């Protein structure tokens, strides 16, 4: 399929014909799932490129890449090849819009001075770097040494991170849990061994209703015994984000388990 | 490391003295104060970020469990003791029905994964009967990869 309107050419041309096939297949077709995964995976550099354009604005790069990927998945699902435009002309604004939405919604829960936002970003960057270097999470004093700051500055930055609210990203994935693929889909499902858990009958449906990624994180932490840093690396988000997701998911499960054996 | 191996059998002795104690109404909405204190203590003890996050989640889980076991209108006490190698936590509420939290639940699995040591008990020596969870989070042994 060729289109004279196409202005972005190159590496993705060979994927263009797949969209027509993708759109023609019924929802539950095995081939459709394969195509969807391939279209998302092979266009990932586009999402990553857009995420990079928004770097240095105070958000961890891992989280930006993830939001951009959600935008890409939405673009793949919503693209209508019948309209005669090429995919990238549709995808780039869709992905960019998703990242902009993230910046709009994902804000500090309380008013935080610019200095603290920058501190948060420095700490987040240093955490990723040192975790990579050490193979474990750094301590506050290691972060202070690396950043040339006092321990008190790092404490302040870590506390400020608690005021940070990225719930919109989590909500977005919750909303999309049933209809669209999350990053977790690509990671495969963990078989959670609930033997010995008395309230597993109540737990199982709650776990099943969690977004793929949250279920995966819970499985890795509580049934696979991985640390948050190891999970962050595997899932491709920051350790602080893993921490927030775990806290939120545990609270959600606790609420759901009310009334079952405590 | 399996869970059995990571569970160290060292209960916190009864006569131990604590450094910090936080008391709140035994309702879920006040637990954020306790979480904040737990995170602050672990941070200032220079625990690594995983251990800080684990302690915070463990304290949240323990206190949430106790809130469900608390007699209505009572207070939850959460006390912390910081030593160079570990932070010990004792959380206590007056019991609603004299039963301890069960150990075969998901919540207990969460607690025993997050903490290095955890135990639950009911004390009938005083009035009212109290239910208590003790937990210990050890500093992560630093082995640079």
UniProtKB/TrEMBL annotation, chain A:
<dbReference type="GO" id="GO:0016987">
    <property type="term" value="F:sigma factor activity"/>
</dbReference>
<dbReference type="InterPro" id="IPR014322">
    <property type="entry name" value="RNA_pol_sigma-B/F/G"/>
</dbReference>
<dbReference type="GO" id="GO:0003677">
    <property type="term" value="F:DNA binding"/>
</dbReference>
<keyword id="KW-0731">Sigma factor</keyword>
<dbReference type="InterPro" id="IPR013324">
    <property type="entry name" value="RNA_pol_sigma_r3/r4-like"/>
</dbReference>
<dbReference type="InterPro" id="IPR007630">
    <property type="entry name" value="RNA_pol_sigma70_r4"/>
</dbReference>
<dbReference type="Pfam" id="PF04539">
    <property type="entry name" value="Sigma70_r3"/>
</dbReference>
<protein>
    <submittedName>
        <fullName>RNA polymerase sigma factor</fullName>
    </submittedName>
</protein>
<dbReference type="InterPro" id="IPR013325">
    <property type="entry name" value="RNA_pol_sigma_r2"/>
</dbReference>
<dbReference type="Pfam" id="PF04545">
    <property type="entry name" value="Sigma70_r4"/>
</dbReference>
<feature type="domain" description="RNA polymerase sigma-70 region 2">
    <location>
        <begin position="39"/>
        <end position="108"/>
    </location>
</feature>
<dbReference type="InterPro" id="IPR007627">
    <property type="entry name" value="RNA_pol_sigma70_r2"/>
</dbReference>
<keyword id="KW-0238">DNA-binding</keyword>
<feature type="domain" description="RNA polymerase sigma-70 region 3">
    <location>
        <begin position="123"/>
        <end position="185"/>
    </location>
</feature>
<dbReference type="InterPro" id="IPR007624">
    <property type="entry name" value="RNA_pol_sigma70_r3"/>
</dbReference>
<keyword id="KW-0804">Transcription</keyword>
<dbReference type="InterPro" id="IPR014284">
    <property type="entry name" value="RNA_pol_sigma-70_dom"/>
</dbReference>
<dbReference type="GO" id="GO:0006352">
    <property type="term" value="P:DNA-templated transcription initiation"/>
</dbReference>
<dbReference type="Pfam" id="PF04542">
    <property type="entry name" value="Sigma70_r2"/>
</dbReference>
<feature type="domain" description="RNA polymerase sigma-70 region 4">
    <location>
        <begin position="206"/>
        <end position="255"/>
    </location>
</feature>
<dbReference type="InterPro" id="IPR000943">
    <property type="entry name" value="RNA_pol_sigma70"/>
</dbReference>
<keyword id="KW-0805">Transcription regulation</keyword>
Automatic annotation (TrEMBL), chain B:
<protein>
    <submittedName>
        <fullName>Anti-sigma regulatory factor</fullName>
    </submittedName>
</protein>
<dbReference type="InterPro" id="IPR003594">
    <property type="entry name" value="HATPase_dom"/>
</dbReference>
<dbReference type="Pfam" id="PF13581">
    <property type="entry name" value="HATPase_c_2"/>
</dbReference>
<feature type="domain" description="Histidine kinase/HSP90-like ATPase">
    <location>
        <begin position="25"/>
        <end position="93"/>
    </location>
</feature>
<dbReference type="InterPro" id="IPR036890">
    <property type="entry name" value="HATPase_C_sf"/>
</dbReference>
């Amino acid at each position: 399929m060729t289109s004279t309107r196409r202005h972005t050419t190159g590496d993705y041309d060979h994927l263009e014909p797949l969209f027509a096939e993708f759109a023609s297949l019924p929802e539950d077709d095995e081939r459709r799932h394969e195509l969807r995964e391939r279209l998302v995976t092979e266009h990932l550099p586009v999402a990553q490129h857009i995420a990079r354009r928004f770097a240095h604005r105070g958000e961890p790069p891992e989280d930006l890449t993830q939001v951009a990927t959600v935008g890409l998945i939405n673009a793949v699902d919503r693209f209508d090849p019948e309209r005669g435009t090429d995919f990238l002309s549709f995808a780039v604004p869709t992905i960019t819009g998703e990242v902009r939405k993230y910046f709009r919604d994902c804000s500090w829960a309380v008013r935080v001075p610019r200095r603290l936002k920058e501190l948060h970003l420095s700490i987040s960057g240093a955490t990723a770097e040192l975790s990579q270097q050490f193979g474990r999470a750094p301590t506050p004093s290691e972060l202070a040494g690396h950043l040339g700051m006092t321990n008190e500055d790092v404490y302040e930055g870590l506390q400020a991170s608690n005021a940070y609210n990225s719930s919109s990203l989590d909500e977005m994935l919750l909303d999309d849990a049933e209809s669209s693929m999350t990053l977790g889909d690509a990671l495969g499902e963990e078989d959670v061994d609930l033997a010995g858990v008395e309230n597993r009958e109540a737990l199982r449906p709650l776990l099943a209703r969690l977004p793929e990624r949250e279920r995966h994180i819970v499985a890795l932490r509580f049934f696979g015994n991985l640390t948050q840093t190891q999970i962050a690396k595997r899932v491709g988000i920051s350790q602080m984000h893993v921490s927030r997701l775990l806290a939120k998911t545990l609270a959600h499960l606790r609420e759901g388990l009310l009334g079952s054996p405590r | 490391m399996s869970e059995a191996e990571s569970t160290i059998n060292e209960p916190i002795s009864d006569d131990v003295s604590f450094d910090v104690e936080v008391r709140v109404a035994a309702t879920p909405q006040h637990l954020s104060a306790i979480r904040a204190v737990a995170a602050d203590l672990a941070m200032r003890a220079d625990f690594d970020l995983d251990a800080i996050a684990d302690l915070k989640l463990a304290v949240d889980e323990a206190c949430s469990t106790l809130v469900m076991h608390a007699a209505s209108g009572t207070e939850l006490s959460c006390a912390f003791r910081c030593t160079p190698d570990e932070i010990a936590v004792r959380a206590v509420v007056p019991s609603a029905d004299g039963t301890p939290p069960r150990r075969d639940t998901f919540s207990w699995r969460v607690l025993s994964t997050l903490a290095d040591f955890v135990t639950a008990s009911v004390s009938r020596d005083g009035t009212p009967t109290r239910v208590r969870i003790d937990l210990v989070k050890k500093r992560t042994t630093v082995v640079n990869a």
